[in-house]
Write a structure and sequence with these properties.
alpha/beta, Transcription Regulator spoIIAA, 4 helices, 43% helix
Length: 106
């Protein structure tokens, strides 16, 4: 976790799948209390499955309910998976951390 100009950046590594999605959701949900916009950086994620996508969707819904800004950054594999299920816009998918931070500042 890193805070850049009042924007929290959560960087995750490894896999976001059925085995790790509960841990992911707990971590992110606990940090929503900060009430700061945030970026979920998945650029170091090797694998994303439907459970991981579900966790991202739940996070997005929670953020919309709280009127909290967020964005997701992914490597090409993660971005392809997100776009394949047409969730790019819903998850505010950006191609780089810089793009995500710029998006949240505006």
């Amino acid at each position: 976790m890193d805070v850049k100009t009042n924007i929290i950046v959560f960087t995750f590594k490894g896999q976001l799948d059925a085995f790790s999605e509960k841990q992911f959701k707990t971590f992110v949900t606990n940090n929503l209390k900060n009430e700061l916009p945030f970026v979920i950086d998945l650029s170091k994620i090797d694998f994303l499955d439907s459970s991981g996508l579900g966790a991202l969707v739940q996070t997005a819904k929670e953020c919309k309910k709280l009127k909290l800004g967020f964005s997701v950054v992914g490597n090409s594999r993660v971005a392809q998976t997100i776009k394949l299920v047409r969730l790019g816009e819903f998850l505010n998918l950006k191609s780089s951390l810089e793009d995500a931070i710029t998006y949240l500042k505006n």
